[in-house]
What does this fold into?
Amino acid sequence: MRTPIAYFLILSAALFAIGTVGVLVRRNALVIFMSVELQLNAVNVALVAFSRMHNELDGQVLAFFSMVVAAAEVVVGLAIILNVYRRRHSAIVDDVSLLRG
Amino acid sequence: MPLDNVVFWVFAPISIGSAIGMLFQRNAVHAALFLIVNFFTIAVFFLILGAPFLFAVQIIVYAGAIMVLFLFVIMLLGVDREETLIEQLRGQRPLAIVLGLGVAVELFFAIRAGVGFATRGPENFDEVANRGLVGNAEALSRVLFRNYFFPFEVTSILLIIAAIAVMVLASRRARAITRAEQAAAVDRREPEPVA
It folds into this structure.
């Protein structure tokens, strides 16, 4: 393998930073959630790259677990967004600034 | 130029570009489509890093299941309108971009200090990591079911809890009709037009 491991890690860092900016800048709750998914995937790339670097499969197993947790998290998060939308008829986070029903 | 280098340099710009496209796309459906492209490129990176099982799982779980769920909810809510650019907190957007760049630069220096650009993946990854087993899936299952068996079982409980939670959260008729609401419904019916 000729590509340095650091290239994958830098790519992962760049994707993570883009996801962070997405979470901070966007107003639509669904797009914020998508940015969180992007961050999770960026970390997965780093985990698999470290797995390759150390010649062990443990990193891949951890990436696998993070995918499972991400799937569970997406389902619950989307249900919460759905409930907020039913109550407020908006998925924009600025409209949901009160912690009252 | 070896093959994995070529694949990396072809897919890395697509990956970064689709992520930035998602960031600046004001339509939620288009943002979701950009994210699907990004997930596919990440699957390709898994493949060249020697994780073909995760490549398949990435496409099935992320590009398949999760993004379909996202698109379904976007269509269901009808929030494919463009969002406003009005800032609630003044200066939050530029500050967020500056901080994001800061995170990227900091991570870059951390990687340069911690891993360095000379470290390359070992050539014999498949033989060493797979321990003489047939393939990546078999070797991964060996690690998963021997060293990580308890976390794996906990994961299954987590998925069941998530499924039940979603059924509770998303059902409309879970709430029983209260007496007050019944009375209100009767009140609304009562005033009959007098002929």
Chain B touches chain A through 88 residues (CB under 8 Å).
